[in-house]
Design brief:
- The chain has about 800 residues and is α+β, with helices and mostly antiparallel strands.
- Helix content is about 25%, strand content about 30%.
- It is built from 20 helices and 36 strands.
- The strands form ten sheets. It has a four-stranded antiparallel beta sheet with strand order 1-28-27-26. A four-stranded antiparallel beta sheet has the order 2-3-4-5, with no helix packed on it.
Length: about 800
Amino acid sequence: MGAYELSAELFGHESDVRCCGVVDSGRVVTGSRDSSIILWERNKDNGRDFGPAKRFEGHEHFVNAVTVVNSTLIASGSADKTIRLWNIESGKCVLILAEHSAAVCSLKIAEDKMEIISSSWDNTARLWKLSSCEGDEITGSCTVVFRGHEAAVWDAMGCAGRIITASADKSIKLWDKANGTLLTTLAGHTDVVRNLAPAPEDGFFSVSNDGSARLWKVAGQDNYQNVNLISALHDDQFIYCASSLVSSTTEVKPLLASGGEDKNVKIVEMGSDAILKPIASIPHPGTVWAVHFMENGDVLSGCSDGRARIFTTDKERVAAEMVLSDYENSLAQQQVSTKLIGGVDVSKLPDAETALSEPGVKDGQNLIVRRGNVAEVYMWVDPASKWIKVGDVVDSPDGGGGGAAGGGAGTSGGTIDGKYYDFVFDVEVEEGGANRSLGYNRGENPYEAAQRFVEQNELSGGDYLDQIAKFIEQNVSADNRIVAAPPVARDPFTGGNRYVPGAVNTGVNHGGGAATGNNQFAPARYVPGGSNTVPRPKEEPKHIPATTYVLYTSTDQEKKIVEKLRENNDKAAKDGLNLSSEELEYLVTTTVPKVCAAKPSAADAKDAGVILKASTWSSELLVPVLDLARLAVNQPSLHEQFVSGDGSIMHVILQKVLSEENVSPAILILSCRFFCNLFGSPSGIETAKLNMSRILEQVSIARSSPNRRVRETYATLLYNYAIALKGDSRVDAVLEAAFLVFTASEKDEPVLYRILVAVGTAMSSSKEATLTAQKLGVAEAASSTASISSRLLACANEIAQLLFM
């Protein structure tokens, strides 16, 4: 086999390429953090270049997964919790599957072309049956749910009539495809299992954050055995993706391709007796998120620099010299932290000309050399018999060989939200967004600090936790920290064993998280462009008026709610308000599952009764009760009892909970979410309108809360009222309440976005509302936010247009 060389660069995405797939030898598809999917077609003239043919848009968050159903149909999975099927020819979305309660992170065909297997951060995998795969007349439904993992399910695949899943709980599970019965659990990996790929004779490969790739072979009925592994395949860094090429003939050796945090695609050959041998390394300018073998043996990859690339061993398909030169320059321009390579004394390095004249020992070998006063890093590409420059060595921010270049500013101690930290970093997690402060204390587990940052900033934990921990490792010297390992008994993607009401799966797109350049926290990145860029619509998407209510109708914390209900019921006993043992058991075993299910079952009067009885507990015990109430408020059998009368949940919130001093952030959040969810049904909307004055008066304390999530849910409530009151004179109250948010000097972008859209939506309902906004000084208030982000600027411009129409 010859060396892998660049065949084509595919640029058109505006952020990381997170997933990829192959339609046929002339077409591939990619998905990105920019929320879009692009279909690429091979240039028929030269047989190597690919150009963008079609862009599919509709997802409201990152696209994490894509799979090809057939030559006319592709499927995509997103952090917006949905799976979409697209007609390749028309570009239309022909079906939306929305039963996952958290981000969808992988999609694969489950052996049968009429079935798709999906996996999600909601700890489940799901099997979907499609009724048809032709044209736009397609239906589909979930036929089996695979439950049993204790953390996010990162990947799932069909194999020999079974379903195999890989999880953040470090395990691999084998399931009965027909009924979802767990057959066996496979242990071996010591960290998050990220991806699976087929191997010969109904076996499979797995890759993990522990840096290893493992080969599993059938070992009796309904069981597998780990027969071989390669540890430290990516130099002990996380492996994010894998793809295999398995021929029907034994003359061609199976291949495994993997990509990871070390910015390489590794090619592994499976020889006789299941021996795994690394045979090639393909360097990239950034983290490799996705990899996929093509039919002809070429390798398709997706990278954090916003580009997809195709590599080949066929000299006929190697890219033009200019393209190769640009690619090699992008590799050479990388900066490699001294922390990553153990510290460098440039004066003691070998001279570049002399050292590079000697061949490397093995493929992927790194060599640091001196060229003048600069230390350079090269990698040996064995099949090509040459050294490729992969970066320059730079000092760490703390001057002690401790950090990744461009990762963040500021390593001295400081205070965040009133608490002192030994190290404070300013990091940017959203392109063009404001920096956020990351605090770390000496001796702290980097994963604990990362988890705190994820929760404080409402980030998608599964994407950010690993990278933030890595960032801390690279920016804090070893003697100031302990070895980073995910905390025991804590789910690194959802907050683990601590109950955080509504902290995950709120149904809200918080935005943020687009990676920038080669480092998740780099302050700037190159946005690919040029002649191959996909044409964008001339009309920018409008933010105003809003037409869809924002609801908080899902949760993945059922177990934590149950634990808290039991705990708080014991505490309520001292006031004689505890539920009886029979009532409590009914609540936690029957009512809670009904209410928390992805598709809630119809609750009845008995369910309403136990929830209402629990609502008599003292305010500090009501968090799990209100969490249940906000999920159930729109069930027809419960709605009336929850909103009418002195004993209703709404009465408890308005007259008891919010009337007390020092209302906790959790109570404020859940109260606002309860009222937001009223807008999920016609009767609920009428209830919200009828009680608007009381509701807005009581929740107004949320406006000045120091907790961002409190203020965001309050802003969401105003947003929903603005939609509901279109053409109603009472919309002026929404404008006045929203304007007070501006006067409170709000600076948080997601909060301001909701407020601006609420204001614009209210203004668009009538000339009278526009006049009210003008008197309040909305134009000046909106323009003062325009410099914070591009979407706030867009909203400010739309509001200005409404004012002067």
